[in-house]
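Lab channel / #folding
Pinned by the channel admin:
"Please post every new chain as: sequence first, then the structure tokens as a reply. Keep commentary short and put observations after the output so the thread stays searchable."

First post following the new format, from NK:
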Amino acid sequence: MNLKELLEKKQELDQKIKEKNLEVRSIKEEAQQVESELFEKMSREGIEKTGIDGYSVRITRDIFPQVEDWDTVFNYVKKNNMFNLLYKRINSVAFRELVDNGKIPEGIKSNIIEKLSFRNG
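Reply from TO:
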């Protein structure tokens, strides 16, 4: 295929993906609605776990942090040497700004990823 044919094929495939994604989104919304109804019914009836024909469902509870004061959290982490509470990840946008200004922090190297960028219109 020549370049024009490849671009046309890519555009055609992107359109198919878009159409299928709309269909999937609709199915996911319906599944979410059923899940909500199931959760409500189980909660109302005091059922924690149930199932049918090998398919089971269980209400689970997880605890997630919600920071109310970042300064207090950072002070706690530093004071108790508990850096494992934080994600070990560099903010890419802030890093790119430093690189653009010629300032690469010690201990970090740049990793360049090349990819194609498509735009419609």
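NK: The radius of gyration is 25 Å.
TO: also worth noting, The longest strand covers residues 49-52.
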